Amino acid sequence: MIFLVFDEISASTFTESEKNKVIVVSIPGLSFNEFSKEQLQVLPSLSFLFEQSKVGAMNVRINGGNIDDVYVSLGAGVPTKSRSDIKALHLDEKVDGESAYEKYARYVGSLHEKVEIVVPEISLLYELNEDNRYQTQIGLLGETLKQNEKNIYVYGNRDRGIVSNESHNEKKRSSAQMIMDKKGLISYGNIGKQTLTINKKRPFSVQTNYQWIFEQLKSVKNNSMILIELGDLDRLYVDKLYYSPARFYQLQQEVLKELDEFLGEIINDMNPEDSMILFSPQVHRDAKEVKLLLTPFIYYDKQITPGLLTSSTTKRTGIVSHVDMAPSLLKLFQTSTPSGIMGNTIMAEENDQKNVHWLVEEIKKIQNIYQLRPKLLYSFVTYEVIVLIISLLFVIKGLRQGIPFIKPFLFSLLIAPLVMLWMGYFSGLSSLIQIIFFLAVTILLSMMFQYFSIISMLTIISFSTSFMILMDGLLGAYAMKHSVLGYDVMIGARYYGIGNEFMGVLIGSTALAATMFFHVTYLKYNRLTKWLIAVYFLIVIFYLGAPFLGTNAGGTITAIVTFSILWIKCFKEKWVSSIHWLKFTVLSAILGFISLIVLWILNDVMITDQNKVSHIGKAMNGLFSGNVQQIIDIAIRKISINWLLIRVSAWSKVFLTSLVVIVFFVLKPNGRFKKWHDKYYSFMIGFSATTIGTIVVFFINDSGIVAAATMIVYVAIPMLLLKLNDKGREVEN
User: Membrane-spanning regions, if any (predicted)?
Assistant: First the structure.
């Protein structure tokens, strides 16, 4: 079988030659709304850039933070914290009667180098990030450029008017944190009132002084990086509530046209050895309201061919991450990336089939998924908990007459993940249509399956779910990437591979399917069944662990443990007939060691191109190189995320409810497990192996509670079905 994963084989280097000047234009408030066909018709420069550049959509979510966090994170190369009261100032600017030079000297110490921009509160930035789990190095981008003798400039601001020295809170000067050095210094530029001009008809009575900034660019030295922040769009949206819709639209068009003219002047003035990056550190409030959170990222130079961008961080066509900005800027100057930066160089896609118009449609799909996910999943999780509780009450009360009523609801819980996978193929449709599709298909299949025997139903649903998730993943994971049960590109939780929700479903359904096959073929075809199941297990494990496929370390370890225990107990019964805690401990240690070996082979030995190393491979490389602190930081981060999800995630309720169901059957009625062990031996093997796997995934994954919740239902629901039909003949059919 040939596995085709486009993102892995289609990217080229970001740039082949060193650039003389790199102009980075930051436009806070810019979103993909401004790149509609209608809007671009009146914005010739933006239209030119959109059609003739390399374009991507950038995730700028920093732990739910604000624009200040974004800028400082872009400069550190890892998620970093900042505050709105940490501001860059021109050296001679005064605050409360005190110059920026005096303020910096008091907080940090005397300046011994010539600079024009300082961040007096730089020490506070270090304090805010002292316990940062990413081991943040403040100003690493600017420091690296400085050490490599690059000139650094910054112009522009988001100030709320021509502010007085006393109006410190109205100064919005966080952009400099992107390119300052580790001391909070920038050699050249101007972020003060000279970059603005008074206009009483504009928000806060000012607008950007485009002509003045453009004149400054003419005197910029060679071998330089220039950051320009254009704040007019940001100011307009901050002030939006006070405008009539008609007036706001008029001003919006004026602001965009002025931006467009300025960009046109820069493009015309660029030399062949120069390049420009246009990006937005934060979308405006209208885009936020409709969950359009990915921001435009455009790269242009005179030699470029149009196309899309990607990176090894995302492995998604047209999608890049904020952590990729620093290594990409360094690459433009042919400067190596320091180890403290976690991102990867942004690369150009080589695919004639996908262009900016395809990207716009893809972003709409991602937007639809993000809008639909809370509506559908929160409702489904609530429904799941209610069905499990009612079913357990039926069992406790012995209400066997209610079996025909409750069975379709239990079936629906097992069918729903598969339907959610199919929904990925319709992600371009409206949320309403997708919800109708989900309800209609789930209800229809649930009603159909109630006429099957329990064994047949569990076998068909579990194997269909496992097989279709696996095949979708092996063929590029289109459905999974666009499913509400998949991962979330919009918030940067995961960009590629298999997410923890579907990972739990895949392992749980695979284990249940293997259990059913073993039960059905226990007396016949046992040898054939044994090796067919083993081969299928190996394919699933390979998919989960391969860096160009599932890329899920926790899932790989969980699958190895779960499947190994299930297979050994099914086909090596004598070996485990007298198993005790010591043998189980040794077995667990062996399986854990095997898991690490498998991950090492898949993510290091098989990968020769370091640009394609996954996050798992980077972690293992860090471990082998003796960077134990990196592994400790990863472990702490996983524990903290898991603990947070346990407290706030709706999935924790599913996990706890399922756990109550399992515990009930273990403790009461007395002797139930002994009877089931004799009557349904293979079931008990599958249930115990999956339960052990659930425990494993809970502790080793950063969102283990999510995977555990989607996995444990493949124990709880079959148990309920078995008990509800325990005295009937249907189970044995």
Answer: 376-396, 408-426, 432-452, 459-480, 502-521, 528-546, 581-602, 650-668, 680-699, 705-722
Domain edge (last residue) among 331, 354, 377:
354
Inter-CA distances, 494 with 226, 321, 409, 431, Å: 32, 11, 31, 22
- CB-facing half-sphere around the CA of 622: CA atoms within 13 A: 18
Residues 470-490: pLDDT tens digits?
Answer: 999 999 899 999 999 988 888
Token pair for 352: 């004639």
**What is the 3-class SS of 249-263, one letter each residue?**
HHHHHHHHHHHHHHH
Domains held by the chain: number: 2
Which tens digit of pLDDT belongs to each residue from 138-178? 999 999 999 999 999 999 999 998 866 556 668 899 999 99
- The CA-based diameter of the chain, rounded to the nearest angstrom, is 91
Using CB atoms within 10 A of its CB, is residue 582 exposed (0-12), middle (13-18) or buried (19+)? exposed
Closest Cα partner for 457 from 70, 720, 702? 720
Phi, psi (rounded to 5 degrees) for 483: -100, 145
Residue 417, pLDDT score: 96
Give alpha helix (H) positions in 475-549: 478-481, 500-520, 526-545
Torsion angle of alpha carbons 126, 130, 132, 135, nearest 10°?
Answer: 80
The helix or strand, by DSSP H or E, that contains position 320, with its residue range, turns out to be strand 319-321
Q: With H, G, I as helix, E, B as strand and everything else as coil, classify residue 312.
A: coil
Structure-block tokens of residue 525:
């075809």
One domain, residues 316 and 445: no
The strand pair at 54-59 and 319-321 is best described as parallel
Q: Give start and end residues of each alpha helix (H) in 277-402.
A: 285-289, 325-332, 356-397
Beta bridge partners of 89: 118
Dihedral over Cα of 610, 616, 617, 618: its sign = positive
Residue 269 within any structural domain of the chain: yes
Cβ atoms of 691 and 561 within 8 Å: the answer is no
**Pairing of the two strands 295-301 and 54-59:** antiparallel
Q: Which two tokens stand for residue 32?
A: 């993909």
Q: Are residues 118 and 136 in the same domain?
A: yes
- Contacts of residue 73, Cβ cutoff 8 Å, sequence gap at least 6: 62, 79, 80, 322, 323
- What's the CATH code of the domain at 43? 3.40.720.10
- For residue 1, being part of any structural domain is answered with no
Sign of CA dihedral 298, 299, 302, 306: negative
Task: List own/partner pairs for 523-531 with CB under 8 A and 24 or more apart.
Answer: 526/571, 530/567, 530/570, 530/571
Domain boundary among 324, 354, 384: 354
Q: What is the DSSP code (8-state) at residue 668?
A: S
Is residue 732 predicted with pLDDT exceeding 50?
A: no
Instruction: Kindly report, residue by residue over 603-615, the tens digit of the pLDDT.
Output: 665 555 555 555 5
Domain residues for the domain of 347 are 6-354
Give the CA count within 13 Å in the CB-facing half-sphere of 140: 26
pLDDT the model gives residue 52: 92
Q: Which residues contact 38 (CB under 8 A, 6 or more apart)?
A: none
* Interacting residues of 130 by C-beta distance below 8 A, sequence separation 6+: none
CA distance 598 to 603: 8
* Interhelix angle 681-700/704-724, nearest 10 degrees: 160
